[in-house]
């Protein structure tokens, strides 16, 4: 018998990330006849509350003023009030909190990336690794990995394979035809001509995204090409450093930093090639969103990239963040072929990264957990 009205309480830390958007989209695509979902966002900066409300209007927000573990008592009261059947944690802090507060509630966690601390044995990162491994082995009923690659890494830490399930991340597929037709006006709004060639990247302006190297590699490839632009969408703690690098090339101002934009699709649809220059990446949801906009991509070998390249070998993978310039130059020189690559990427998204498929798998997991 299939249980009705299974109540799942998601706990998410670090709201300005692909994880937050993913969970919000997942909840919207679960069958409400069977799954009652609640999202609790734990934030450290009250300024972000409005962003969360726009992304997920019915969520619960716990503001910690920079001290995450202030959230323990607040989360305890929420769990007591809502009485969920399943706690679903996302990243390390929520795993710890849910373990402390779960009582007899089933606990699922999703591993959203190749967490750098997993391979460490010393210092703070080594301590994080010890805590993570202990908790997922002993206090999680199911561990979801967002790619096969991450699944293999999680199994390698000694976790029972029966506990591990791979469910690829996915996105709501959007019809982008109208956005593609507004390409000229979108470009004009940021000072780019319709005939120019545009690279774009979306992500936090932080070390792991590799933007310092990306800007330097872009300038190395195109300092003499005034019809090539790099558009970066995002905000973060390296913004000042990136602006300083751009200022050093003041005679060549073809890098556009647009800040954080909640829905970047119109800019993606107005670009020619997507770039991911990350040192490490969870899944790489921004790459899939770019593919939805019919873009080819150049990327380091992170997240789900290798799976996609197995399907469409025309996308370009580089070995590290300082080997990007030649690949960017290749895209520019072969720009007439880029559109065909983007069309094939769009077909891959439709077939493999549709959020309805992901939601069905999570729904089956929740129901199965309560039946056994």
Highlighted features:
372 residues, alpha/beta, Rossmann fold, 2 domains, 7-stranded parallel β-sheet, 6-stranded parallel β-sheet, 16 helices, 13 strands, 44% helix, 18% strand
As for the number of domains, it is 2
Q: Tell me the structural class.
A: alpha/beta
Please name the CATH architecture of the largest domain: 3-Layer(aba) Sandwich
Shape: globular
Radius of gyration: 21 Å
Strand order of the largest sheet: 3-2-1-4-5-6-7
Q: What share of residues is helical?
A: 40-55%
Note poorly predicted spans. none
The CATH topology name of the largest domain reads Rossmann fold
Largest sheet: 7 strands, parallel
Write a structural description.
This protein is of the alpha/beta class and 372 residues long. It has 16 helices and 13 strands. The chain has helices spanning 18-29, 49-55, 71-82, 92-101, 123-139, 148-155, 177-181, 183-189, 211-222, 239-248, 265-268, 285-292, 305-311, 325-333, 335-352, 355-371, and strands at residues 6-13, 35-43, 60-63, 86-90, 106-111, 142-145, 164-166, 197-202, 228-233, 255-259, 273-276, 297-300, 316-318. Helix 1 (18-29) links the parallel strand 1 (6-13) and strand 2 (35-43). It is globular, with a radius of gyration of 21 Å. The mean pLDDT is 87.
């Amino acid at each position: 018998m299939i249980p009705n009205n299974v109540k799942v309480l998601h706990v998410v830390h670090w709201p300005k990330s692909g994880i937050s958007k993913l969970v919000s989209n997942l909840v919207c695509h679960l069958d409400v006849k069977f799954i009652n979902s609640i999202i609790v966002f734990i934030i450290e900066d009250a300024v972000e509350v409005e962003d969360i409300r726009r992304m997920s209007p019915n969520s619960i927000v716990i503001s910690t003023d920079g001290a995450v573990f202030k959230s323990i008592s607040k989360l305890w009261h929420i769990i007591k009030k809502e009485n969920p059947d399943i706690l679903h944690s996302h990243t390390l802090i929520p795993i710890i909190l849910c373990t402390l507060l779960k009582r007899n509630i089933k606990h699922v966690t999703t591993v959203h990336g190749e967490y750098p601390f997993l391979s460490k044995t010393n210092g703070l990162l080594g301590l994080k690794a010890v805590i993570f491994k202990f908790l997922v082995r002993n206090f999680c009923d199911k561990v979801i990995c967002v790619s096969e690659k991450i699944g293999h890494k999680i199994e390698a830490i000694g976790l029972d394979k029966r506990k591990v399930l791979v469910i690829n991340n996915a996105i709501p597929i959007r019809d982008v035809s109208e956005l593609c037709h507004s390409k000229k006006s979108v470009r004009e709004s940021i000072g780019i001509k319709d005939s120019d060639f545009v690279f774009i990247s979306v992500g936090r302006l932080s070390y792991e995204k590799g933007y310092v190297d990306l800007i330097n590699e872009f300038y190395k490839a195109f300092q003499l090409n005034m019809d090539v632009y790099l558009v970066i969408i995002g905000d973060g703690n390296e913004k000042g450093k990136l602006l300083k690098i751009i200022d050093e090339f003041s005679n060549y101002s073809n890098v556009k930093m647009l800040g954080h934009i909640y829905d970047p699709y119109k800019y993606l649809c107005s670009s020619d090639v997507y770039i991911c220059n990350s040192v490490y990446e969870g899944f790489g949801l921004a790459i899939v969103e770019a593919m939805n906009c019919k873009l080819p991509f150049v990327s380091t070998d992170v997240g789900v990239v290798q799976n996609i390249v197995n399907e469409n070998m025309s996308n370009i993978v580089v070995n590290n963040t300082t080997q990007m310039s030649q690949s960017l130059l290749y895209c520019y020189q072969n720009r007439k072929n880029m559109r065909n690559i983007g069309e094939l990427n769009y077909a891959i998204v439709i077939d493999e990264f549709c959020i309805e498929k992901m939601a069905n798998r999570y729904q089956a997991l929740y129901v199965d957990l309560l039946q056994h």
